Structures
1.
Amino acid sequence: MPAGAAAAPGAQPTVPDGRRVRVRVPATSANLGPGFDTLGLALNVHDELEVVATVPGADGPQVRVDVTGVGAGEVPTDESNLVARSLLHVFDRVGVAAPSLHLTATNRIPHGRGMGSSGAAIVSGVLAAKGLLEGVVEVGDDDVLRYATELEGHPDNVAPAIFGGLTIAWVDETGPRQKQLAVHRGVSLLVAVPEATMSTKLARSLQPEAVPHADAVFNVSRSALLVAALTQSPELLLDATEDRLHQSYRASAMPATSALIEALRAAGHAAVVSGAGPSVLVLAADPAARLDAARIVEERAEAWHAHLLAVDIRGGTVERIPASAVVTPGMG
């Protein structure tokens, strides 16, 4: 049955009792310097999720979320949890009654650090819904992107989380769209993560409504060059990651991030704010350059931690778990 299609009269579609799915979604870094709200990169740090659906009791559908790792004891553990809300959003959009849900989340993506944790949570929920609805309602890749974008507000983070690799995302009259590209094998990634966090809402509030024409042209040229640098010519990464559209406006809210980027770029490294920050992404042209960048990060202070990462090429995955494979506690 296509997404959003009505069930046959008298045949309300439902998810089979006890259906289980496992989801794995990568962290992401958006913008990549000049590609504001357009370019995104999937990173090989993952959140994992297992979901079991059961027939609702007399009190209606119940939602329970168990969290380990990042966010444990801090994020909601009921239907207000972002993963759960995203999952339920899909059920609502396709017109299928939600079952009771037990979510077990293992989180590794840092929260509030510009590594796409909210986008990963949203994609996790949407993919879990896709897996639970298999054979009930068809949810295709375009649907996953559309539902995730409805929740996130823009596709630059959710696109690489879904599809992996380097993505170019845009929105037209049909909705969000994306193009996945393979990153040149010479590109090496480093993410410098601070102890401090940054609100995406605050970061966006520092953006002006309009920018000078010359700055807009500057960023168009650098964005085009960055696609070429990441896919064909890594030696151009330093020039390609120059930006005049958003990073300078946010610098006052992230002085330590701005100072680290300045130090890295002065040493010849293509360093940019990762997403809304405050983490810093370095796109190194080779492994030796990445190690030098890591040395600079570690010299700054104990508040920064350098992580040597790779591009995740798979994106988000969802698989059905046979009922006999896992014993999951009841809803209680």
2.
Amino acid sequence: MDSGSETGIAGQRIDIGCRDGINLGGHLWPAVGRCDGAVIINPATGVLTSYYHRYARFLSAHGFQVLTYDYRGIGLSRPDRLRGCGYRWRDWGALDFEAALTFAREHDPLLPVAVVGHSIGGFLPGFAESAPGIERMLTVGAQYGYWGDYARSQRRSLFWKWHAAMPVLTAVLGYFPGRRLGWLEDLPAGVANEWSFRRARMEHSYPAPERKEIIARFAAVQAPILAIGMSDDPIGTPAAISRGLSYFRNADAKQVTITPGDLGLEAVGHFSLFHQRHANGFWLDTLLWLRDGINPWPQRLCPAPAF
């Protein structure tokens, strides 16, 4: 059991079985009082699911049953040997998120299932066969790592870090040693290379015969999506978020760009919206969308994706 000491709410340690035999480690957070639905939290690349536990406790305290989990190769789901495991970004969606979605539905079939996805975690649901059953999605800085969409002011440094240094180190070691470098967690080679060599069109990362099915999977998602971006996020820029949303072409998608000033801060960036400091602000606002489908930032709407 996770202690849940901040709020007295505990997450139950669980294992989630994927259809290819891989087991994922995670936690299930029961709703306090009336349950308004289930929420699955999809982490960013190389971020431990424990980073989202405070937000999971917050949601459970406000009437949601919450499922958190680590993707294969990360944290509770890391194998003894990361080198040579062959895990890919696509597997995190088609296999891992699919398994999490199945677990949530089987645990309580009557609950509508919403998804909160951070960074790549907001894009991965499109790979899952069962994603058409999602009730609602809330994404934060969601994109798929195309370097051309990075903020111009940091594009060169981010390109060197993630699209030059990362593939070289991955080729030498057989995995990406992110933890040793202080650059997120270690990553399986397949995940690191998908990120490093991602092209403007996501489907071009995969064999030509598979591309039509991949695009159809994303198009099958019809859940309303609220895609949140921060104006000072160098990775999840408005262009990057729009590019990702364009694949969910049959979903009712709303994109908003919030400024740090909207949250009473000077800077936020790509990672910090799930920090405890946002519990009395941004986190409360997310309840409006998850519970009632209300966009808390109508004045910050962006134009529809134009890709």
3.
Amino acid sequence: MSGATLEAYLASFTARGEDIARDVAVVVQRLVMAALEVRKLVNQGALGPAFNAARGSSNTDGDLQKEMDVLCDDLFLSCLQGAPVACYASEELENPVLLDPNARLAVATDPLDGSSNIDNNVSIGTIFSVLPAAKGPDVDPSQSFLQPGNRQLAAGFFLYGPQTALVLSIGKGTEIFIFSSRLGCFVEAYKSISIPERTSEFAINMANYRHWEEAIRLYVDDCLAGSEGPREREFNMRWIASLVAETYRILTRGGIFLYPADSRKGYSQGRLRLVYEANPIAFLIENAGGSATTCVTRILDLVPENLHQRVPLAFGSRREVARVARYHVDPNMIGERAPLFGKRGLFRA
């Protein structure tokens, strides 16, 4: 199953002779440098000085920043210094950082996705998006990140788990590379991933059932009803609470992931961030033959209103994502049947 090294893969990509392709390759290589340093920090676990340390400040999500979040953000920002990157944005920074106004690329990251799980030894990662930088003498660096995800030049994530993986798309297919300690580099392990159109596996946080809108509740009800319900087959449920780990599983064996909007305070527009979470994940998923939506609308067509905008997110096997959309827009998908857990859901009066 093993193949070319990442270096050889990028060399083939840049052989087309386009300057922008060479710039993208340089950025990916710089991100790899930072990720390997993050890997060392993560592998120290509870023995590392920054493992459980928290800062007094909060990030853009309102969560208390962990020392690891900030260290990882600093590592990626530092490694992009001197690269062809005009500006850098992340979940840990309120505003983008201007690096080189003459450069042609912009990079957005979630430097340590799933960091709340780090003390549980659950796989976490780094998500990144590479965009063309907005140009102009007085352009605001934020403008580089307020463009639809379909303009991404590359996207991917590093997964720090039992294997250190890089999932990468440069617009033609999605590849998975595994870090080889023996060779000291990333080696292609899965070439041109193809997500099955159908699935019998879904991932969602069932604890929020009572907060979901009816379409999501009834979609999940139909899955849980199994072979005796309208889907006429058995489903398995998964929930890791790590976006990168969920995405990796879906890329390698199919499935659907749902993080819908709900009625809780602060969740009415979803919870995941469009620019540096939903967009890069959607780019990877679509380039692997899957689909990614807000449960209705294609993620990559959305124009961000601000850097830290939230969105609902459903992604994975194409037919299953389309079915979720039909539950929202086609009343015939819902009909007159009652929810599996009663009118008020799991927690009845």
